[in-house]
Write a structure and sequence with these properties.
alpha+beta, Jelly Rolls, 2 domains, 7-stranded antiparallel beta sheet, 2 helices, 15 strands, globular
């Protein structure tokens, strides 16, 4: 039979443990309320959580094949092994064909009479309105110059926007493809050299676009032609060009951009 002294000690120990649990709950409660408050405030303002950032570097894709999660709308896009790529060892691009190769020769000849636009897009069907899209690119070849472009608000091969870097004519330009016709919105000079890696970026917010090259803002533009669509990469004619570290950062819906 337990002595009265032991009963008192056991009861005191039980009360001490209970007090400790209550104190811990009191300390943690404000943090939990603060976390919940942030979420509730955001939702009360009509916002939904932003979609996750998506990055493609192609380093786990098989060389000289199309990445499994991308589709070539037009052009012979494949994964290229590049020891100078920003993210080793691979990039996505249009390979060189070392003349004489019939496919490349035909592209070159055909470009005398018409312009070929070469597009690849992710298989993800999500359409985006407001976002930041950026990538590294290398304009390393092409008889008529080398064209590298970020496609956005893509609806089909006849309707989309493209931020294009053109080498060796050295400019950055924003176009809207509308019913198969490429319309210039804004253009600015940019120093570009073949065989060098660069980064470019476009921020899209409604009808307002801001374009960057290597982190430097090049121009702003406005156009209300297309409200939303998919993203991708772009080139022209017989260009040889590579892309790496393609990154899409969707804007939070219902929250004004900073």
């Amino acid at each position: 039979m337990m002595s009265s002294k032991n009963c008192v000690l056991r009861r005191a120990l039980t009360l001490s443990v209970a007090a400790g649990l209550l104190l811990s709950a009191a300390v943690l409660a404000p943090a939990a309320r603060q976390l919940n408050g942030v979420v509730q405030t955001s939702l009360a303002a009509g916002a939904t959580p932003a979609s996750p950032v998506k990055v493609w570097n192609f380093d786990h894709d098989r060389g000289y094949l199309m990445p499994k999660d991308w589709t070539a709308v037009s052009g012979k896009w494949v994964v290229l092994q590049d020891s100078n790529a920003p993210s080793l060892p691979n990039a996505l691009g249009l390979p060189g064909y070392g003349l004489p190769r019939m496919h490349q020769v035909m592209l070159w000849i055909d470009s005398f009479f018409s312009t070929n636009y070469l597009i690849a897009i992710p298989n993800d069907p999500t359409e985006y309105s407001d976002f930041t899209l950026e990538a590294a690119f290398n304009p390393w070849g092409g008889a008529w110059g080398s064209y590298a472009g970020l496609v956005f608000r893509y609806q089909d091969a006849q309707n989309y926007y493209v931020l294009a870097a053109v080498c060796p004519r050295d400019y950055l330009a924003l176009y809207r493809m509308s019913d198969g016709h490429l319309n210039l919105i804004k253009q600015a000079p940019a120093d570009l050299q073949r065989g060098h890696w660069y980064t470019f970026k476009v921020e899209a917010r409604g009808d307002h676009f801001v374009s960057y090259l290597d982190g430097k803002q090049i121009f702003e533009a406005q156009d209300a032609g297309l409200a939303k669509g998919r993203i991708g990469v772009w080139s022209q004619n017989d260009s040889r060009v590579s892309f790496d570290n393609i990154k899409l950062t969707p804007a939070s819906q219902g929250v004004p951009p900073a």
